[in-house]
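ARCHIVE CARD
CATEGORY: sequence design from structure
SOURCE FIELD: tokenized fold
FIELD CONTENT:
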């Protein structure tokens, strides 16, 4: 699930031309990330407890049942909180369509071609009649002598420069 959310946050500016609210995105991420661990981690805790309760002779079944009940309550409450966090995500998704900051063509300052399209969001065919000429590989970051930290693939080299 986190990979799907990450992809949506990453591609949303290119698809819509707007940025999602970063503060809401961070709130959504941390509740979902920590909540996923809080939902599934207690299962690992319950295994040693089951074995410890089995070793006790008196009240082992009662102890095991009480522990299982507490774990079930904790997991249920945590799952409800994580479920609510998804409403934050959807609120951010739909609100940003109208009220999100304009993204520009390359908000992540990426060097790869998909972020260099002439329009955002890109029209049909992405590039129009002329396809871009690629001068370097897609990950030209920290290029010595360049004013920016990245160098897009479709920027021609300066005379005498060797492409990385």
């Amino acid at each position: 699930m986190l990979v799907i959310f990450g992809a949506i946050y990453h591609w949303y500016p290119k698809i819509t031309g707007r940025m999602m609210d970063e503060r809401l995105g961070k709130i959504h991420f941390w509740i979902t990330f920590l909540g996923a661990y809080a939902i599934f981690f207690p299962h690992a805790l319950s295994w040693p407890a089951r074995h410890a309760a089995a070793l006790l002779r008196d009240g082992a079944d009662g102890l095991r049942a009480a522990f299982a009940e507490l774990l079930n309550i904790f997991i249920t409450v945590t799952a409800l909180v994580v479920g609510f966090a998804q409403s934050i995500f959807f609120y951010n998704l739909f609100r940003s369509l109208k009220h999100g900051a304009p993204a520009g063509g390359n908000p992540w300052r990426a060097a790869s071609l998909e972020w260099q399209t002439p329009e955002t969001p890109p029209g049909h065919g992405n590039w129009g009649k002329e396809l871009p000429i690629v001068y370097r590989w897609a990950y030209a970051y920290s290029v010595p002598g360049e004013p920016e930290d990245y160098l897009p693939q479709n920027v021609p080299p300066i005379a005498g420069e060797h492409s990385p």
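CARD ANNOTATION: Residues 60-99 form the longest helix (40 residues). DSSP finds three helices and no strands in the chain.
SHELF: design records, drawer C
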